């Protein structure tokens, strides 16, 4: 039952209780953030909060969230980008908070974790087998010798032990291909009422638990699915708190990206099987053969115009998929379970093929300035081998979607250690669809609630606040920019770079995290420094990333070199990490289809495409990378940017303003001396 505000302790009292329970001390930034989140929930005004590492931001938003859930009886959704933060919230922060607050609020707050249906084991799929594989019998043979067979056999064994069916609880994990054999998408699912395993369904049990919870922890992908698609996935809620909000746009874009391959069409042909007339299925099979041939002939990369052969095969594929869907007919409740399952499996893939073909064809109906989607052809690498080509289509931006489907539906709090780029929230606010310039509106007299009436322009109202960091960056860290180095080129790392890196690592006595813009550069640097130095050099890809990070943390003399996941995923407090080296400003690749298309679209509307897209992308990554240095109050060290453009280029000021306020120098001898003193 909801409780009135008068019967609940104040937010400040609950925060004090929570902090004491976890053995901490209240920090000014944490209190400021908690009060700002509480005010946002009360007024309905969206909030962006930059909260540096060590602020204690989890409690700063969880306590107001619990207060609102108990007072209103409504669920609050907390969304994260990473599994690691989900697990931290569900396994550590929320259980401790619930136990601590129970005496104050009269009951223990409840919480649950909810993911997309594909993340849960499907008991019906386990019983009937996967439709993608032609040799189902061999695949599910417990004595199968293939790696896929071994993984599926292990999943069968795990299915009788797990209580949740949650893929993330399976350690060690299995390949995506193996997991697809035992899971279904929302479109493939028969539904609780029709499925013979409906009452025991792991996904339905998770949804039911979430519907009863005060706090539901989910991920940005499921949040996007709930917001962007036509069916409700999350329980009813009026508040969303988005942690790791700097990742929101990329995760929503990923959900809104579609793909078409010849393999998908072949799989759809198999799924149709004998359900429809052979001549109709043959048309789809011929379309798939056309896709395979034309995709193989076209160059990879962004498509600014639709080649006539590709347009032709897409129209044929669209029409063939539609004919198959029509032939399968409407869903008939009188069908037996097996027939219903086969139809659902076929329809799900056919609709995906049809809708993607339509979307690609429509993407070229407008000029560059009005275009909403970008289309490209690519072939990813798996295990060193190229996959068959895939045609992909993604939105140029998700601002409109977020503005309408997220900010237009519920009060939203966005938080991260990195939200202000160039010293302002504006860059990310534009990507989220929040107005950068807005007129304050006055609360009308006699308004019955605290909710502020909408502004005249009907745009969402929001505010931004930077609550700072408990770290004294200017006293604990140095930003060193190697202004004397030549600008990085396209032919790999230069000899001067290795000389600079060698001197820095020697002065630091190892203790170095090297962040590189490409895997090629990381390996090149690791190979070179192994020849020059005695310090152990670990390189991403030589073992699992988690194991490499553990080894790096355990041995102070060790260095770890790697690329993108290390820029945002390393948390190593203490003396094992005293030097963060960045090889070059992490602009997106010039041939990146999505980034280049977004940049061109901004320029077509008269904007600065480089600053809006490329520089913003680089600033966000630089800030995340620099944030690896100080992870506790006792940490000290250096962030070294070995790209002279940070000091010399016109955009350098914007990038430097995005970094923590370290003391800055361009003097090589000063930095080496500081590192040597730390190492003494």
TrEMBL record:
GO terms for molecular function: helicase activity. It comes from the Bacteria. Residues 436-462 are annotated as: Disordered. It holds the Pfam family DEAD. It catalyses: ATP + H2O = ADP + phosphate + H(+). Residues 16-305, 38-282 form the Helicase ATP-binding domain. It is an enzyme of class 5 (isomerase). Keywords: ATP-binding, Helicase, Hydrolase, Nucleotide-binding. Its EC number is 5.6.2.3. PROSITE patterns: HELICASE_ATP_BIND_1, HELICASE_ATP_BIND_2. Its cofactor is [4Fe-4S] cluster. The keyword Ubl conjugation does not apply. Belongs to the helicase family. DinG subfamily. PANTHER family: DNA REPAIR DEAD HELICASE RAD3/XP-D SUBFAMILY MEMBER, REGULATOR OF TELOMERE ELONGATION HELICASE 1. This is DNA 5'-3' helicase. It comes from Kibdelosporangium persicum.
């Amino acid at each position: 039952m909801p409780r009135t505000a008068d019967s609940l302790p104040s937010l400040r009292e609950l925060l004090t209780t929570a902090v004491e329970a976890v053995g901490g001390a209240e920090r000014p930034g944490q209190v400021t953030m908690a009060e700002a989140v509480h005010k946002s929930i009360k007024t309905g005004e969206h909030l962006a909060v930059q909260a540096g590492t060590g602020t204690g931001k989890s409690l700063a938003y969880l306590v107001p969230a619990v207060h609102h859930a108990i007072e209103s009886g409504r669920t609050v959704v907390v969304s994260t980008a990473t599994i690691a933060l989900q697990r931290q919230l569900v396994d550590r922060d929320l259980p401790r908070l619930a136990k601590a607050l129970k005496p104050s609020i009269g009951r223990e707050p409840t919480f649950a974790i909810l993911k997309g249906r594909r993340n849960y084991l499907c008991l019906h799929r386990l019983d009937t087998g996967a439709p993608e594989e032609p040799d189902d019998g061999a695949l599910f043979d417990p004595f199968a010798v293939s790696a896929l067979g071994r993984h599926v056999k292990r999943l069968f064994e795990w299915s009788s032990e797990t209580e949740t069916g949650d893929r993330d609880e399976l350690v060690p994990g299995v390949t995506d291909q193996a997991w697809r054999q035992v899971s279904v998408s929302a479109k493939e699912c028969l539904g609780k009422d029709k499925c013979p395993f409906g009452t025991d369904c792991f996904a339905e049990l998770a949804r039911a638990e979430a519907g009863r919870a005060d706090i539901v922890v989910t991920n940005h992908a499921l949040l996007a699915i709930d917001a962007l698609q036509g069916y409700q996935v999350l329980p009813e809620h009026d508040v969303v708190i988005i942690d790791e909000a700097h990742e929101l746009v990329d995760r929503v874009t990923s959900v809104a990206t579609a793909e078409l391959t010849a393999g998908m069409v072949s799989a759809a042909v198999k799924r149709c099987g004998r359900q429809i007339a052979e001549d109709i299925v043959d048309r789809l099979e011929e379309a798939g053969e056309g896709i395979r041939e034309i995709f193989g002939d076209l160059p990879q990369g962004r498509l600014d115009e639709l080649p006539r052969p590709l347009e032709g095969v897409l129209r044929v594929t669209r029409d063939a998929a539609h004919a198959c869907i029509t032939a399968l007919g409407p869903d008939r409740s009188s069908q037996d379970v097996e027939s219903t399952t086969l139809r659902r499996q076929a329809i799900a893939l056919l609709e995906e093929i049809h809708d993607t073909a339509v979307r690609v064809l429509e993407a070229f109906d407008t000029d560059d300035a009005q275009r909403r989607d970008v289309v490209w052809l690519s072939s990813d690498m798996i295990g060193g081998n190229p996959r068959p080509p895939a045609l992909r289509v993604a939105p140029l931006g998700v601002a409109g979607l977020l503005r309408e489907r997220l900010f237009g539906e519920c009060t939203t709090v966005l938080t991260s250690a990195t939200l202000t780029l160039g010293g302002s929230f504006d860059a990310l606010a534009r990507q989220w669809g929040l107005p950068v310039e807005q007129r304050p509106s006055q609360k009308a007299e006699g308004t019955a609630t605290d909710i502020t009436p909408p502004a005249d322009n009907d745009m969402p109202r929001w505010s931004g606040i930077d609550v700072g960091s408990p770290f004294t960056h200017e006293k604990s860290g140095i930003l060193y920019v190697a202004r004397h180095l030549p600008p990085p080129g396209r032919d790999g790392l230069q000899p001067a770079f290795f000389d600079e890196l060698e001197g820095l690592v020697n002065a630091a006595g190892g203790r170095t995290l090297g962040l590189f813009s490409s895997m090629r550069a990381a390996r090149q640097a690791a190979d070179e420094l192994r020849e020059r130095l005695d310090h152990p050099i670990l390189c991403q890809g030589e073992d699992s990333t988690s194991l490499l990070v553990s080894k790096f943390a355990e041995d102070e003399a060790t260095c770890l070199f790697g690329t993108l996941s290390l820029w945002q995923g390393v948390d190593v407090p203490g003396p094992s990490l005293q030097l963060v080296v960045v090889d070059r400003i992490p602009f997106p690749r010039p041939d990146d289809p999505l980034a280049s298309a977004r940049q061109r679209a901004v320029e077509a509307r008269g904007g600065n495409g480089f600053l809006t897209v490329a520089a913003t992308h680089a600033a966000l990554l630089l800030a995340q990378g620099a944030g690896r240095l100080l992870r506790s109050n006792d940490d000290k060290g250096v962030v070294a940017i070995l790209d002279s453009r940070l000091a010399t280029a016109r955009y350098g000021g914007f990038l430097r303003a995005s970094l923590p306020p370290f003391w800055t120098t361009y003097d090589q001898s000063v930095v080496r001396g500081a590192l040597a003193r730390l190492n003494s």
